[in-house]
Amino acid sequence: MLEQRIQQQFFDSADLKYAAAEILAKPIADAVSAVVGSITGGGKVLACGNGGSASDAQHFAAEFIGRFERERPGLAAVALTTDSSILTAVGNDYNFDVIFSKQVQALGNPGDVLLAITTSGNSANVLAAVEAAHAKEMTVIALTGRGGGKMRDQLLETDVHICVPHERTARIQEVHLLVLHCLCDAVDLQLLGEQDNA
Ligand SMILES: O=C(CO)[C@@H](O)[C@H](O)[C@H](O)[C@H](O)COP(=O)(O)O
Ligand SMILES: [Zn+2]
pTM, whole model, 2 decimals? Predict the structure, then answer.
């Protein structure tokens, strides 16, 4: 019984990945263009999200600054979820809704990219970060699910919306991680060319 339930989670996750492959390939390719344009122009990626999405933001920044699968110079990325002094000071002195937007205001420049990760599309602090990014003339790449929530209405035509077609947070997060790995892989391909296996 328990084993069946566990197997079903694998099947559901795999089914969603098949469905998402068709729907998300185009917006992910658009996100790659946005990131490559920013990085080659001297820009950087600021990443934010709550809970599991905070981990995703950090996971992405680690692979940009460190490496993904290929050797290359580090790429500029900052997870806005990691500095406990900033998060507690801003959360305590202002409120939790501005913990990311304050950092975007302080660190963001025109041409930078905000990677905004929220499975519901409704996290107030992520939405506030998007507003701050627009004020800084940054491009937003939004990773969402559940139809996109409030994020859908907040994005501009020049932004990229990668919306996973599912209702369950865990399943959406599983696809978000795959999206981030696709981004890392494709950015490396664009910057370094095809791998020489000779
Ligand atoms: O990882 C999980 C659930 O899988 C949780 O920590 C989850 O990320 C948190 O509940 C978040 O606060 C949800 O926020 P969001 O995805 O709706 O923006
Ligand atoms: Zn990874």
Answer: 0.97
